[in-house]
Amino acid sequence: MRQFFVLLIFLTLITFTKSFPSSTFRCDSLSGYTECEGTFPNEITTVYYEPNPAIPGENLTVTIAGMNTVTVQEGATLNITGLYQGKQAFVHIMDFCKVWVEVNGDKCPVSPGYFKYITPLPIKSHPDDPKNTTISYDFLFQIYNPGDPKTELTCLKGKFDVSYP
């Protein structure tokens, strides 16, 4: 009889734990970002930045990590586009190799394999910035290899919050 109750309790616990999606208990390694529609050869599996929300006039420390299946060439660019209420609010195009790879002690070309880069990025303030509010931008993060045409290596989209003091 005791074995029956132990088995019943065990089965109840298994049923209970299976009823919860496993993602409920996992940390979001992409900080709310998702891969864009389409197929991209290089995958970013971790995005983390602080402070969150970003604050104009302060540095934003960004961590990205993932897996390259295609070599990142010298001259690769990172394009960051922010939209607010459906309209383009900003575009930043930077040399991915100089701003991300070299800052971490590596050099382009970056061969296929695992990568992790931590980069401080200044968030510039502007006299026309709003005051005492937080704005959530629709954010697009794309890395391209140079060439004609450029090759899009990866693309992430999501929300990026900026807290204006």
Question: Which keywords apply here?
Answer:
single chain, Ganglioside M2 Activator Protein, Chain: A, Phosphatidylglycerol/phosphatidylinositol transfer protein, ML_dom, Ig_E-set, signal
Describe this structure in words.
- It is a single chain.
- By secondary structure, this protein is mainly beta.
- It has a single domain, classed as Ganglioside GM2 activator (Ganglioside M2 Activator Protein, Chain: A).
- Helices cover 14% and strands 45% of the residues.
- The strands form 2 sheets. The protein has a 5-stranded antiparallel beta sheet with strand order 1-8-7-4-5.
- The protein is globular.
- The N and C termini lie far apart (67 Å).
Q: How would the global form be characterised? A: globular
**SS elements, strand count:** 8
Structural class: mainly beta
CATH architectural name: Distorted Sandwich
Distance, first to last CA: 67 Å
> Could you please say which CATH topology applies here?
Ganglioside M2 Activator Protein, Chain: A
